[in-house]
Amino acid sequence: MNTLYLAAAVVLLLTMVLGLARVFWQTSRADSLLAAILFGTTGVALVLLLGAGLGLSGAVDMALVFALLAAVLGVAFVLRGWPDGDSKEKREP
């Protein structure tokens, strides 16, 4: 069963590398935001699979920290990185 966990972790790691290559080719802010959130969730799954496959007891705690950091990263990107000019609403004086 440990081999199955480690094989799934390798597949997730490969998808993260392919996603990183996609981020370098796309320059859109929305693509960058979705890639950052994807890296966060894939990182959580990767840590959990490695923890189960290698028998690490602190993997759940580390995965929780990664999940919190991914959520904060998404919120920070939207609040600080999204330009105000993208709004379609017309403001009246």
Index terms:
3 helices, 93 residues, flat, mainly alpha
Enumerate how many helices there are, as a single number.
3
Cα Rg: 17 Å
Uncertain stretches of 5 or more adjacent residues = none
**Total beta strands:** 0
Let me know the average pLDDT.
Answer: 82
Supply the helix-strand structural class. mainly alpha
Query: How helix-rich are the residues, as a percent range?
Result: over 70%
CA-CA gap between termini: 65 Å
Q: In sequence order, what are the helices and strands, one letter per element?
A: HHH
Biggest β-sheet description: none
Indicate the overall shape: flat
Q: What proportion of the residues form beta strands (DSSP E)?
A: under 5%
Structure described in brief:
By secondary structure, the protein is mostly helical. It is built from 3 helices and no strands.
Topology:
Blueprint: H1 2-25, H2 29-54, H3 59-81
Describe the structure.
By secondary structure, the chain is mostly helical. The chain has a domain at 1-11 and 32-80. 78% of the residues lie in helices and 0% in strands. It has helices at 2-25, 29-54, 59-81. The N and C termini lie far apart (65 Å). The mean pLDDT is 82.
